[in-house]
Each structure stands twice: as structure tokens, then as C-alpha cells.
Specification:
Blueprint lengths: L1 E5 L6 H10 L7 E5 L10 H10 L3 E2 L3 H10 L12 H5 L3 H9 L4 E3 L3 E4 L12 H17 L8 H8 L2 E2 L17 E2 L9 E4 L8 E3 L2 E3 L9 E6 L4 E6 L10
Helix pairs in contact: 2-5
The structure holds manganese (II) ion (MN).
Manganese (II) ion (MN) binds next to helix 3.
Length: about 250
């Protein structure tokens, strides 16, 4: 079995299909993983979710999935650059939303941990499984109480951090911020390789314990896969720029 991790797809279904061809994805042999932000800004969020769901992909939630959960519950209004209207209007919208709402925020395997944006500096390898369960329970509780997941600091952190200090405090803006703020992964000292997305401006980063896979497909750059078993990066170019880069 190969584990194949895909960076932020953001509605770029055609590029997702091309990337699956490029890695010669075989559902009988391989397992697909998405770092989240599979939806929004791009042209076909519903198509991306359908494909991930149908292929039995493991997906962690990104800030755009949390945003859709809030928009769908009418707790938030769509933003100007959002492309969630087609997803909201899809015939299978309820099925797709239920699938999204039941995904984890953190997915830890023996040697790899997947999260959308980043891990808190206080967390170590031996805490990750419990933390994954805790975050998932906190999200269920928030949804049950009609509360935005953004109100929960740890959920906001794992889906949106870029820079922080060694206590996990985030700067007011990250353009980039002065010391002591550093990219969150500067504080990761665990044994697991962290696979994440969320930081298109930083782009693909391959570090000793990091595979940051958001290479800005929706902004006209590339969609990236990391094949864990081969430790190999595979990219396909975006067919066009669907959105203006913001982060
Ligand atoms: Mn994101």
C-alpha cells in the first residue's frame, strides 16, 4: 500500500484527477489523504468532495471546510471570493456536508501526522492520538450547540496557524511577524513527519519532519502530492488561476 497525501485542492477537480493519473493512483493498492481545504475559491468543490468520498480518502478539515460548515448552518455569510454557492445547491449537498462534518482535525499514524495548518508547540508525538480524539469531540459538541468551530481556540489553531511563538501565541498579522514569532513547524520536535497545507504563499516545503503541500493550485500554481512510501513529490500545473492569492 502507498499513502498519497494531496495538498489544498480548493475546488480544482480537474487538477485532482490529473494528479491521481500522474501518481497512477490505484484504489485497490493506495490510500488517498487530503490535508483539507478541498473546497472553496475554485470551480468544483462538490466534484472534489465526491471524488474524495468515493475513493475513501482520509481528509482532515481545513479552514474552508469549517467555513462551509458555518455557512451551511447560516452562522456565517459567504465571503466575496467564496465559490460555495454551487456546493450549497448540489443535489447531494446534505450527504457531502455530513461527510465533511464527520472528518477529523488531526490524523496520526505511526510515522506521519496530518493536520491542515499546523501543530501546537506544546504537543508531542505521545499526545497526538488523544488530541485528535479531543478535537473531534470538541467539534461535535460545538456543532450540536450551534456554535461556530472558530470559537474553539485549538480548532482555530490547527486549521489556521502560520506563525506562532514557543507558547503557541499567534501574531496579530503574519507579514512576516518579528521574533519571537516563527513558522509553527520551527517548534515541532516530534518523531513523526507532519503533513500539512494552508500556506500557499510559502509554497511546497520539504523538511526533515515536514511536508507542507499547499502549492497554490487555485491561484494558478501547482497541485502537489507526497507519496509517503517512496518519499516522492509529484505535481501537476493548474490549468489556470481561479482566484487571487491572499495567503
Ligand atoms: Mn487553509
Amino acid at each position: 500500500m502507498r499513502r498519497i497525501y494531496i495538498g489544498d485542492i480548493q475546488g480544482c477537480r480537474e487538477e485532482l484527477e490529473l494528479l491521481l493519473e500522474a501518481v497512477k493512483f490505484d484504489p485497490a493498492r493506495d490510500r488517498l489523504h487530503s490535508v483539507g481545504d478541498a473546497v472553496n475559491r475554485g470551480p468544483d468543490s462538490a466534484g472534489c468532495l465526491r471524488l474524495l468520498k468515493q475513493l475513501g480518502a482520509v481528509m482532515v478539515l481545513g479552514n474552508h471546510e469549517l467555513h462551509w460548515i458555518d455557512v451551511a448552518a447560516k452562522r456565517r455569510h459567504p465571503g466575496k471570493r467564496d465559490t460555495l454557492a454551487a456546493l450549497e445547491a448540489a443535489a447531494d449537498r446534505d450527504d457531502l456536508l455530513e461527510w465533511v462534518r464527520t472528518r477529523p482535525l488531526l490524523h496520526a499514524e505511526a510515522d506521519v501526522v496530518m493536520v491542515h495548518a499546523g501543530l501546537h508547540p506544546a504537543w508531542r508525538d505521545d499526545a497526538l492520538a488523544a488530541k485528535a480524539a479531543e478535537l473531534r469531540a470538541a467539534l461535535d459538541d460545538a456543532i450540536a450547540r450551534d456554535l461556530s468551530p472558530w470559537k474553539l481556540p485549538e480548532i482555530a489553531f490547527v486549521t489556521s496557524v502560520r506563525f506562532c511563538d514557543e507558547q503557541g501565541r499567534e501574531p496579530d498579522e503574519d507579514d512576516p511577524p518579528p521574533p519571537p514569532f516563527r513558522p509553527w513547524d520551527a517548534f515541532w520536535s516530534g518523531e513523526r513527519v507532519v503533513v500539512c497545507g494552508h500556506w500557499a504563499r510559502r509554497g511546497l516545503v520539504v523538511g526533515p519532519k515536514l511536508r507542507a503541500l499547499d502549492s497554490g493550485c487555485v491561484y494558478g500554481k501547482q497541485l502537489t502530492a507526497w507519496i509517503a512510501e517512496d518519499d516522492r513529490i509529484v505535481q501537476v500545473p493548474a490549468r489556470r488561476a481561479y482566484s487571487l492569492i491572499t495567503a
